[in-house]
């Protein structure tokens, strides 16, 4: 088993490499830096054109490997790091091929350069992989740095509904595999104002608190039913919106936020709902999406 990280020179920042090092160090395994270059559609062409393209792809792969090696030299001490590149019709498809080939246990991606520092920004490649990868996909926030350390804790985002208990089980199994403590958090968000001004915001506060109280009762059953142990912290965090709620959580250095998905159909293997997408977008720490 190994950790696979997608990297292409000049395309994505260093945050993914930093997260991949932390994941590999925590799992006690190796790291593979994979560069996927676009593969042209088969069209009649001169052999010289094909040779030039192959040379360009080889140069891009070598440039990406050299650039990544330069950054990893100071933070990946003691980790066996390999480099490879593939030509594929899509970056996402190429990364999945690499994961299958090397026995990847986790696929790591960096956020796109756009967006504010400290936020997770996903593009079309990451979005496709979140719905198709057979292994967990970890995405780092923009500007994330590791400082040669390990991951320290997994926080599981729990929807506080009966059908979401399986997600907590998967988070618990993942925490054990990583050798990390587990925390379970439910986010209660007010959302858009539902009542006219003359009613007052107190009514909305009461509704939000009632929902939070119900969520606490549901979370308590996780211990009663043996889904989590007594050492697992259970928290309900309320906020005016998703950014406010995630900002109130006491995140620690090296923490990763895990979300579960559920099976959907054979074409799209998993389904990540709008709630999960909002949590990912506002997360100040790396996210780990577990396939259904």
From TrEMBL:
Domain UspA per the UniProt entry, residue ranges: 2-139, 153-291
Gene3D superfamilies: 3.40.50.12370
InterPro entries registered for this protein in UniProt: USP_A, UspA
One Pfam family matching this protein: Usp
Coiled-coil residue spans: none
Protein name, per record: Universal stress protein
Native source species: Mycobacterium alsense
Source taxonomy: Bacteria, Bacillati, Actinomycetota, Actinomycetes, Mycobacteriales
């Amino acid at each position: 088993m190994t950790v696979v990280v997608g990297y292409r020179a000049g395309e994505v920042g260093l945050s993914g490499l930093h997260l991949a090092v932390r994941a590999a160090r925590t799992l006690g395994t190796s790291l593979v830096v994979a560069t996927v270059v676009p593969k042209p559609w088969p069209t009649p062409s001169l052999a010289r054109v094909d040779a030039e393209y192959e040379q360009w792809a080889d140069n891009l792969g070598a440039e990406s490997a050299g650039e990544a090696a330069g950054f990893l030299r100071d933070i990946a001490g003691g980790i066996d790091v390999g480099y490879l590149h593939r030509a594929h019709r899509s970056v996402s498809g190429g990364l999945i091929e690499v994961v299958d080939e090397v026995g990847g246990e986790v696929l790591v991606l960096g956020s796109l350069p756009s967006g504010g520092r400290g936020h997770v920004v996903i593009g079309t490649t990451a979005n496709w992989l979140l719905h198709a990868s057979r292994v967990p996909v970890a995405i780092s926030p923009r500007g994330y740095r590791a400082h040669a350390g390990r991951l320290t804790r997994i926080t599981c985002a729990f929807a506080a509904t009966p059908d979401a208990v399986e997600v907590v089980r998967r988070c618990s199994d993942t925490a054990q595999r990583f050798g990390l403590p587990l925390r379970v958090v439910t986010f209660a968000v007010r959302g858009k104002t539902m009542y006219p001004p003359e009613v007052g915001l107190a009514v909305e506060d009461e509704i939000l608190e009632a929902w939070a109280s119900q969520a606490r009762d549901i979370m308590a059953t996780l211990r009663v039913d043996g889904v989590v142990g007594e050492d697992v912290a259970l928290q309900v965090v309320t906020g005016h919106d998703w950014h406010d709620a995630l900002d109130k959580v006491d995140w620690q250095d090296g923490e990763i936020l895990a979300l579960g998905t559920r099976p959907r159909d054979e074409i799209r293997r998993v389904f990540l709902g709008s709630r999960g997408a909002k949590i990912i977008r506002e997360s100040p720490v790396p996210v780990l999406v577990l396939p259904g």
